[in-house]
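Batch job 17 of 40 flagged for manual review because the log was empty.
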Amino acid sequence: MNWRIIGTLIAKDFSLFFRKKLFAALTIFGLIIYIVLYFVMPNSVSETLKIGLYAPVVPPVFNQLPNEGLEIDIVSSEEALKEAVIDGKYVAGISLPADIMEKFNSKQKPTINLYFTPDVPDEAKDAVVLMIQELAYMQTGQPLSIELSGEILGPDTIGQPIPPRDRLRPLLAVFILMVEMLGLANLIAEEVERGTIQALLVTPMSVKELFIAKGITGTGIAFVQAVLFMVLVGGMNQQPLIVLITLLLGAVLVTGIAFIIGSLSKDFMSVLGWGVLAFILMILPSFIVMFPGVITGWVKVIPSYFLVDTVHRAANFASGWSDLWSNLLILAGFCLAITWIGIMVLRRKFQ
């Protein structure tokens, strides 16, 4: 393997990449826009508690709840309540037994089940418990008239509520990676259609050296920008090594996708068409972080889910290797598979 040849190809690709005014502008000004967008987003969370309630019989005292700072939704079943809490739709779930009024009237203590989101702070848990105890007292006129059973659903990522702009970080990181994917795909498509790659292969350069150079170019441009963004917005303050490795894997992933798009495209418009389709698909998992409960578990079939989830949990909850090793392993597997597919289809294209 001739690293001098690889270095020359990398320098050529960098030059051609930034010679394209559209992608040069997206690379430079896009990064600035992402950073500005992050800092104009709210840096605090809403004080309103959104709670799900499953109650075959709703005690009359629930009608006396204050409207300010509290939002309660009635859920059709206990299973639906648990799913909604796991998906992050509610910070807490309350399940009342069907015979709650009968037990109140007979001076017995009904058991009320409480479900919490993994990231709900202790203060919110205490507030929900106190609210239920107060309602029970108002209903019966007696203290300690209920028994509470609490359960944490989902992975335990205890911490403070996440401000909207911190939830936005994984989405913007994926945006940065995907924009660079379009640039590399366009570069590859142009070189294939103009016969540049075929001409290069006539020289002493090997196919392996060609793909190594393209891979380093695409991965390097995407990785450096994503890291720079995360550093500037504070995304590297917790678990920096995990975030770095995740972003590197993400850069490799989009480089593999760029190989596939470049092999399928004949010009800039076809690159844009395939690229937008991949763009939309890859950013979908980010909405789980931005808007919990909007998208369900099927989104885990999309490789970028493991990128977004790992960055979110590492940067916002300081989750460690023991919590995220499976995410990193799956993401690495997707990287290898997609990059291999990209190399195979692109190799067939110019041979």
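Reviewer: the log was empty due to a logging misconfiguration, but the result itself is present. Confidence is low (pLDDT under 50) at residues 156-160. Unflagging and moving on to job 18.
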